[in-house]
Amino acid sequence: GQQLNQSPQSMFIQEGEDVSMNCTSSSIFNTWLWYKQDPGEGPVLLIALYKAGELTSNGRLTAQFGITRKDSFLNISASIPSDVGIYFCAGARTGNQFYFGTGTSLTVIP
Amino acid sequence: EAGVVQSPRYKIIEKKQPVAFWCNPISGHNTLYWYRQNLGQGPELLIRYENEEAVDDSQLPKDRFSAERLKGVDSTLKIQPAELGDSAVYLCASSSGRRDTQYFGPGTRLTVL
């Protein structure tokens, strides 16, 4: 199956720093989702995006649906230790068929 | 509202043995997904159900994998016989279908020895 490209693959940052990551596809998507996965757990939905250019926030997290509809971005402001985990993007063209990114591993150094 | 429930959480078996995973989706969610997640990768779809109908099983290795969702609610994924390469986390997710969003269960971590 198709997997989306996420970058960076991993990040090591100091507590309090801002974080940016992105997800790109060769295909146009109509929905972008961002998830966080902790070790030994399933992915937890953070933000859902449904329209090109849409900017949505969830606390310190902000995600954007790219204008080209082939990419999406996630920003985390003022990172804290509990932000540690793997962040996945997922895109869907139509209906309920989702494709997942390769993940961005985030480490926050206190 | 209860989330997606999966059991067992962990399973260790020897190769060539059968294994089954169970999933109960969020109440009212008509769409159910089974994914496999290998270490360091994102989830990959195995099968998607709309109610009791399997609408996308193109990635399901049908020689050894089977799934069912007889009453359109809970679902079972089976592997028989298991191979070493089947070691992975098996995730179940569900969606209401009203908007394109899906919610995951905690997963079953399978280790095949």
Structure description:
- The complex is a heterodimer of chains A (110) and B (113).
- In chain A, a hairpin with a 2-residue loop joins strand 6 (55-58) and strand 7 (61-65).
- In chain A, the strands form 2 sheets. In chain A, strands 2, 4, 5, 9, 10 and 11 form a 6-stranded mixed β-sheet that branches.
- Chain A is built from no helices and 11 strands.
- Chain A is globular and about 40 Å long.
- Chain A has 110 residues and is mainly β.
- Chain B is mainly beta and 113 residues long.
- Helices cover 0% and strands 49% of the residues of chain B.
- In chain B, the strands form 2 sheets. In chain B, strands 2, 4, 5, 6, 9, 10 and 11 form a 7-stranded mixed β-sheet that branches. A 4-stranded antiparallel β-sheet of chain B has the order 1-3-8-7, with no helix packed on it.
- The termini of chain B are far apart.
- Chain A binds chain B through residues 1, 3-4, 30-31, 33, 35, 40-45, 48, 50, 88, 90, 92, 95-98, 100-103, and chain B through 4, 6, 31, 33, 40-45, 48, 50, 56, 59, 91, 93, 95, 97, 99-107, 109.
| Number of extended strands of chain A | 11
Per DSSP E runs of 2 or more residues, the count of β-strands of chain B stands at 11
- Listing every helix as H and every strand as E from the N terminus to the C terminus, the arrangement of chain A reads EEEEEEEEEEE
Number of helices of chain A: 0
Element order, helices and strands of chain B? EEEEEEEEEEE
Give the structural class of chain B. mainly beta
Give the overall shape of chain A, derived from the CA principal axes. Answer: globular
Biggest pleated-sheet summary of chain B: 7 strands, mixed
End-to-end C-alpha gap of chain A: 38 Å
Q: How does the overall form of chain B come out from the CA principal axes?
A: globular
Q: What structural class do you assign from the helix and strand content of chain A?
A: mainly beta
Integer-rounded radius of gyration of chain B:
13 Å
Percent helix range of chain B: under 10%
Low-confidence stretches of chain A: none
